[in-house]
Amino acid sequence: MSKEYRWGIQDLKIAKSADGLTNVIKKVYYRRSLKQIVNDIQHDVHYFGEFKLAPANPTSFTEYQNLTQEQIFTWLDAILPVDFINSRLDDYMAKKLEKDELEAFQLPNRLVTEEVDPTKLPNSPGGQIGE
Fold this sequence. Notes:
Layout: E1 2-18, E2 21-38, E3 41-52, H1 69-79, H2 82-104
Antiparallel strand pairs: 1-2, 2-3
């Protein structure tokens, strides 16, 4: 059973200018995902959130066109409670797997284990109630 946690960026809120800088990211809308493979079947759960960034520092500012997803993921790792988010994803996954397992093994209301003569069933052709 393998597990993989990963970040995703849903959207960015960008100010055209702020503090003398241009195209400054103000808010990151993120997704943290857990992919788990159980019995060769992939299962995914997601945690969505948003993070408001502090004012940009002009000495360490990266121009928007030079910014990479990995840099943003580094910000998220440094600032967000990643262990907490991962534990929530683990809980979601456990519930999902339990639900999937219950649905997969749910039995019909009545299990017939022997041959039945259909003419002996109530309301069937050739049979009558109370026979």
